[in-house]
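Sorry to interrupt, but I need a hand with the structure work. Could you add the entry underneath, on a fresh line?
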Amino acid sequence: MGDFEAFMRDSQMRIEHALDGYLPNGAARPERLHEAMRYSVMDGGKRVRPMLVYAAGRAVNAPNHLLDAPACAIEMVHVYSLIHDDLPAMDNDDLRRGRPTCHKAYDDATAILAGDALQPLAFDVIANESRLGHATRLKIIQTLAMASGSLGMAGGQAIDLEAETRTLTLQQLEEMHARKTGALIHAAIQTGALCNPDVSEEELAGLEIYGKCIGLAFQIQDDILDEIGDTEKLGKPQGSDRQNGKSTFVSLCGLETSKKRKKQLLEKAVSALDTLQHDTSPLIELGRYIVQRDC
């Protein structure tokens, strides 16, 4: 566990430093927009998705210095999605990670623009990382674009909005979360692996299974925490999904079945890593962290 804690600490230090360098200076015009971007990104999040980039890179022996740009790009897209999800027209949340959401700290229009600016910045970060090579940059951009669009996060959010007036089946719920939550988690793992241009199809296939399983397990744990978590630790009101009548794994399957399902997904994810020849311990421990976290 000590090695994993060191990996987490080192990865979080790398990503914080890299994000700070890529983000516009808050004093540069337009100041309010740049401040809002930095407010939302540099907010002390757990950085699970960037850590997955670093862990997947280690599993295929990709050097850390090539992983910084993809890790930052993944986090920027993630934060842009959170800013927009929190807006009154979407989930209408006042708190994110224990402090006011971007539209509460600034205003709706500035929050929209902050999200709008972070998304293209993510692709700019990848496009300008010449050390990755043309072919690798193109593959990463394609992976991130697919995870962000109508077949990924945006599509998942659209399905989520449609579901506010009806109860989803379990299959529909899994499809929604495979897009809304799972797509970017899967993309983080794939982009980390793509940073080694010699990664094999067998390795990518194993990581794809891992990513899909962990992405779904992540959302199941979110649903469990919404039901039994602590508001202070969560940084948002506990029980908000239930109060809003949303379909969740807990509401459809019950608490114990949901816990069993996430455990099965973790076991399948870990087994899929047998195809990799390098150090997969960070991926294994990150999977455990995701399904056992309390916030």
User: Anything to note?
Assistant: The two ends are 20 Å apart (CA to CA).
